[in-house]
Automatic annotation (TrEMBL):
It holds the Pfam family ArsC. Belongs to the ArsC family. InterPro entries: Arsenate_reductase-like (IPR006660), Thioredoxin-like_sf (IPR036249). This is Arsenate reductase family protein. PROSITE patterns: ARSC.
């Protein structure tokens, strides 16, 4: 299991606390430093069952600069969103946990973290 975090984020710290309390075996990826490639973002989206606009932090300053709220949310615009997430990782919603069963969750609540843990078998 891997968790994408921003250490400054309270939701990320909370998720780590739950993982540690449960004795989970996981790897931390500080995605602002170790930026996911476009392919990695596509893979995580597939695992989440979501589209890139579903995991975009539209309130971030860079999102406002780019005007992402006005971008089309359709198949023909998907790559534009993926490229923006890779170029500006601050836009990626966090934390994201990728489970060993091939799924992933946006773990913003304790329940979501526990859901990811339950997928570990």
């Amino acid at each position: 299991m891997e968790i994408w975090i921003n250490p400054a984020c309270s939701k990320c710290r909370s998720a780590i606390t739950v993982l540690d309390a449960e004795g989970a075996d996981y790897t931390v990826r500080r995605y602002l430093e170790d930026v996911p490639s476009e392919d990695e973002i596509r893979e995580v989206l597939d695992r989440l069952g979501l589209e890139p606009w579903d995991i975009t932090r539209t309130q971030e300053a860079v999102a406002k600069e780019l005007g992402v709220r006005e971008w089309a949310r359709d198949a023909s615009s998907r790559e534009r969103w993926v490229k923006a997430l890779s170029a500006h990782p601050k836009l990626i919603q966090r934390p994201i946990i990728t489970a060993d069963d091939g799924t992933a969750v946006v773990a913003r609540t304790e329940e979501a973290v526990r859901d990811a843990l339950s997928r570990e078998g």
